[in-house]
Amino acid sequence: TTKDTLFTFNLSVAETTALMSDLRYQNTLIEPSDRQPQLEIMVLDGEQTSEVAVVHVIILPKNDAAQVLLGGSGQQHFTTTYKEMGSPVAIANATALVTDSDSAFLFQMHVRLSNALDKDSEDIVLLESSLATVQRVRSSTQLDVYIIPSAAATPQAFTTVLRSLVYRSAASE
Predict the structure, then answer these.
(1) What is the longest distance spanned by two Cα atoms in the chain?
(2) Which of 89, 65, 67, 66 is nearest to 76 (CA)?
(3) H helices within 70-172, ranges in order?
(4) Could you give the C-alpha distances from 4 to 39, 158, 170, in angstroms and in order?
(5) Which of 48, 72, 152, 153 is buried deepest, with most CB atoms within 10 A?
(6) What torsion do the CA atoms of 10, 11, 13, 18 make, to the nearest 10 degrees?
(7) Which of 97, 92, 68, 77 is closest to 159 using CA atoms?
């Protein structure tokens, strides 16, 4: 919709110039739109109106974060059961998904094991080791695992990585 706003002032050219430099456009819409706002500006000297000056406003979408859906049916959370002294278990559902609505490539995945029971024996392992480099940082109660592909990778490639991550305890081996 077009919204006309008319400001009427009796100002000098310098004051009008100063006023024009203080005008700002603000978008208060929550949802993005594919329409490009356009501002048309004219000034009147008391007898004649200036030609229309046009400002085209280009709205760049904000960078939305990638999404990680660990469980089936689009669930963000996933629960798995590890049997003491048992085999490694997947940390995501077979239908887990990594998506990003506005980026074609991702650069890193960070997995944190919090409340580690035995920081020296618990681990997050990438079964398909050819997919990326894995770096581990251990502290007293947690393990941080950084999965870094050799080059920027698609969300689909990170989905493959996510589905091949397992939790294991070396104490059970």
Answers:
(1) 91
(2) 67
(3) 155-163
(4) 10, 49, 70
(5) 153
(6) -140
(7) 97
Any idea which residue has 């109106």 for tokens? 49
The tokens describing 144, both together, are 């941080």
Indicate the residue type of 150.
S
> Which CA distances in Å does 160 have to 43, 70, 84, 121, 139?
60, 12, 27, 25, 28
Enter the pTM of the model: 0.63
The residue count of the chain comes to 173
